Amino acid sequence: MRLKNHHIALIFACLIGLSSLPVRASSKQSGVDNSWIRIRIFEKVKRLSLIGSNIEVLNQVDAFRNVAIAPLGEKKLNIELKRKWDRSLLFLQKESGPVSVKDSSLFIKGHGMRVNAQSINNFIQIYKRDASFDVIAYVKLRDYLKGVVSSEMPVNWPAETLKAQIVAARSYALFMTEQRKKQIFDVESSIKDQVYRHTDDDRMEPLLDETANLVLFDGNRNLLKAYYHSECGGQTSSAKKVFGDSQMDFEVRDPYCQGRTWRLELSKREVEKFFGPFKAVINAFNPIKRAYELTVERADSSFETMDAQKLRMQVGSTRMKSTWFESRAHGDKIEFIGKGYGHGVGLCQWGSRQMGVMKKSFREILAFYYPGTKIVSLN
């Protein structure tokens, strides 16, 4: 995908006045890092309790005039979706006063807002669906990257490793922003895209300054969807073979990551939930290369090939930690023994840590895990 517009101008935020949003801005922040990104924090919820200070609620129409529905100064707001008059409606309960009922999506501003134990940013949208609603946070890209990298890596890891992660995360985020420009959000806050948790930790500010606006482009001058993962175990994966993404059709032998071993035992009955009835699982295991497929022998002695990554996601990515495994049958049990953690595509976080320990620069790290790419400034 060629990057046509390096970021979407978030019209809703502009209409209510960006200067009024309580988002921290750095004097060194400019270019693409000063743009906005929409993060889906919660999906398909029916109720939430929001706490903070100076909470305002606006609906989509009133956003043009910046007219508040809930008075400025509210500290708590309960939102619930119910069906009434054969319609889905949002019920808003403030600390005092009657319940407000709204038929449209809402915008909420406030300071220090939290939902349950999770901090959320100071400007969000409640996007109403038919039977539930999503919570979308509007965040400056720079602050988003700070939340992503501190969630994906310990902030006491080598500085060059963290800088490599920042550039990869920025490239991924902007790629998804362009890809989802017609949707209500740009990125998920979970492993569906990049793990994000709001943070006020300033230890990464110098690293964000040093890598401001830098992204990765592939050999065709297209913005790179820079995948990354935890542990490759010594060999990264091809994005084409794992995700069908031809932009990263390469593998890298990685001497910097050895990969921890893991073991998973499943009953034959549980595996049959994913495969259907079978006689045996034949794993084409290669000790120096991860598996992309495995073969199931049916009861009639026919053979069927299965996608290894699909199996991993069905079983659970925290249970079956990678697709680098071999399988063994023990009676009515099937044992999977493997190494590494994650899909294996792109930057290996533990390998990049070792490269940082060895004083490799973030440019060297990125060139190693994303061969043939270039680092470009979008300032």
Protein described:
- This protein is an alpha+beta fold.
- The protein is built from 9 helices and 20 strands.
- Strands 1, 2, 3, 4, 5, 6, 7, 8, 9 and 10 form a 10-stranded mixed β-sheet that branches. Strands 13-18-17 form a 3-stranded antiparallel β-sheet.
- A hairpin with a 2-residue loop joins strand 3 (70-84) and strand 4 (87-94).
Q: Can you tag this structure with a few keywords?
A:
single chain, 379 residues, alpha+beta, ten-stranded mixed β-sheet, three-stranded antiparallel β-sheet, globular
Q: What number of domains?
A: 3
Given the C-alpha coordinates, what overall shape results? Answer: globular
The share of residues in extended strands comes to 25-35%
> Distance between termini?
20 Å
Number of helices: 9
- Secondary-structure class: alpha+beta
Helix fraction bin: 10-25%
Order of helices and strands: HEEEEEEEEEHHEHEEHEHEEEHEEEHHE
Summarize the structure.
The protein is built from nine helices and 20 strands. The protein is of the alpha+beta class and 379 residues long.
Reconstruct the topology from this structure:
Blueprint: H1 11-15, E1 36-45, E2 47-59, E3 70-84, E4 87-94, E5 100-102, E6 106-115, E7 118-119, E8 123-128, E9 133-140, H2 141-152, H3 159-179, E10 187-188, H4 205-210, E11 214-217, E12 228-229, H5 239-243, E13 261-267, H6 268-275, E14 280-282, E15 293-297, E16 303-307, H7 308-315, E17 325-330, E18 333-339, E19 347-348, H8 349-357, H9 362-369, E20 374-377
Parallel strand pairs: 1-10, 12-19
Antiparallel strand pairs: 1-9, 2-3, 2-6, 3-4, 4-5, 6-7, 6-8, 8-9, 11-20, 13-18, 14-15, 15-16, 17-18
Helix pairs in contact: 2-3, 3-8, 3-9
